[in-house]
Design brief:
alpha+beta, five-stranded mixed sheet, globular
Length: about 180
């Protein structure tokens, strides 16, 4: 499943987190989210929501995504509590493939996904895991991958450089990310 990806370089977990911080921390709408949930900082919020990624020693690599409109729709969404609760319930396979997830009206009509699709940031860097079966599962950048999938579905051009930081995930199931999961 790493076809259409060109290896750029290996990364440390710290570098992955720093790249993610550069992209997301300055976005004002995320500040409201983490503050409303009672977190003291963006870093505190993300270390909590993505704890499974930081509890394991993962080997990360940075890749350039060649033909993102072709490959990204074949990736799977991440197991985020909110996405699972609001969008994945109608899919048998969880998490669903992005190309299938786009059929959900809540995703297809999502204001932020549409906003990104209309003004896609370039360059952009996503974060994902490669599962033992080869599937790529997004762990950061869901709105952007949905926007890429929407552009591909609508046959609209994507004039952007897309990169992805990927680590091999050792478990059969993707990690549950976010807050609010029951302790089953």
């Amino acid at each position: 499943m790493l076809n259409n990806l060109k290896l750029i370089k290996p990364l440390t977990a710290s570098q992955v987190f720093d790249i993610w911080r550069e992209i997301e921390e300055p976005l004002e709408h995320w500040r409201g989210v983490w503050q409303s949930k009672g977190f003291k900082s963006w870093e505190d919020w993300r270390h909590t929501t993505h704890a499974p990624l930081f509890e394991k020693e993962l080997n990360w690599n940075l890749y350039k995504v060649n033909e993102p409109a072709k490959s990204v729709p074949e990736w799977r969404g991440g197991m985020f509590h909110g996405w699972s609760k609001w969008f994945y319930n109608s899919f048998q396979e969880k998490p669903p493939f992005l190309k299938d997830l786009l059929a959900h009206p809540g995703v297809n009509n999502h204001w932020y996904v549409r906003e990104i699709a209309n003004n896609f940031p370039s360059p952009t860097t996503l974060t994902a895991l490669r599962m033992p079966n080869g599937d790529i599962v997004v762990v950061e950048g869901m709105h952007r991958v949905c926007a890429i999938t929407m552009l591909a579905h609508d046959n609209k051009p994507l004039n952007a450089e897309v990169f992805v930081m990927i680590a091999d995930w050792p478990e059969k199931e993707p990690p549950r990310l976010g807050t609010g999961w029951s302790k089953d």
